[in-house]
Design a protein that fits this description.
The strands form three sheets. A six-stranded mixed beta sheet has the order 6-7-8-3-9-10, sandwiched between helices. The chain is α/β, with parallel strands linked by helices. The longest helix has 16 residues. Helix 4 crosses helix 5. The protein has nine helices and twelve strands. It starts with a strand and ends with a strand.
């Protein structure tokens, strides 16, 4: 299968301050990669560099085999979509209007969305099961529903890859499940998906591969069932944990150690 997004020996950070180095990854269509690490380890900086929002300090990022730096912004936006941590819109857009914004990369500078664009936007919200929210203000839906709208907006871009930054941050238990199922939907549609998370259980149940990073460096990368295991998680978070095995043979559950 052809790789959509590649990074080779990537170093990231800001002028005069490196955040991390030595990242190499390859992301293919139809797969989900989970990026895990403690707070402050550089996950968001890595993500912004992979998106081209920050320049790499060293190494390279390639999109569809072509250097990311060689992609004009409009062309890049047709291939690479970004879902940030939950946003609260200042304006009272409807869910459909928000999703329609994903068509911007396919329009001219002053062009307005047409019939085709609206059809694509409606198909995106239907694909994620939120068609009933189409005419509702994003101020009048739950945090989980807003996150689904942002994912639908990314889907409406018709990209080849989607990168999501902690997509379940601040969501309740039920809404976390909705969003993780939506991420799997993107991969089922053939998109390459990368998401950052603090939750190894989400990675085990949603991702195909996982990458563990601490202090700006990669500790482990590979198939999710091999990488997400007790010893590696203890090293990643410098914390104790409990592993609860599934009697039916499913993935284990990892819980932080607390109390006496």
């Amino acid at each position: 299968m052809t790789s959509v997004l590649d990074a080779t020996d990537l170093s990231v950070g800001y002028p005069g301050r490196g955040v991390g180095s030595g990242l190499s990854l390859s992301l293919q269509g139809g797969e989900v990669l989970a990026l895990l690490g403690p707070n402050g380890c550089g996950k968001t900086t890595w993500l912004k560099t992979l998106l081209g929002l920050l320049p790499a300090l060293a190494g390279s990022v390639r999109l569809q085999g072509r250097s990311l730096a060689d992609w004009p912004l409009a062309e890049r936006a047709r291939v690479l979509a970004y879902v940030p941590q939950g946003q609260a819109s200042t304006f009272g857009f409807t869910a459909l209007e928000m999703v329609l914004m994903g068509r911007t990369a396919h329009l001219g500078l002053i062009a307005r969305p047409g019939t085709k664009d609206r059809a694509i936007a409606r198909a995106a919200i239907e694909r994620l099961g939120i068609a009933h929210l189409a005419d509702r203000s994003v101020h009048r839906i739950s945090g989980g529903e807003r996150q689904l709208v942002l994912i639908a907006r990314a889907l409406a871009q018709q990209p080849q890859a989607v990168l999501l930054d902690e997509p379940t941050a601040s969501l309740d238990f039920g809404n976390q499940g909705l969003v993780m199922r939506a991420i799997r939907t993107l991969a089922d549609d053939g998109l390459a998906v990368l998401f950052t998370t603090h939750d190894p259980n989400q990675a085990l149940r949603c991702a195909d591969r996982a990458l563990l990073m601490r202090d700006g460096r990669v500790l482990a990368e590979g198939a999710v069932g091999r990488v997400i295991e007790a010893q590696g998680l203890r090293a990643l978070y410098h914390a104790g944990l409990h592993q609860v095995n599934d009697a039916a043979g499913g993935p284990p559950v990892f819980l932080p150690e607390f109390g006496s």
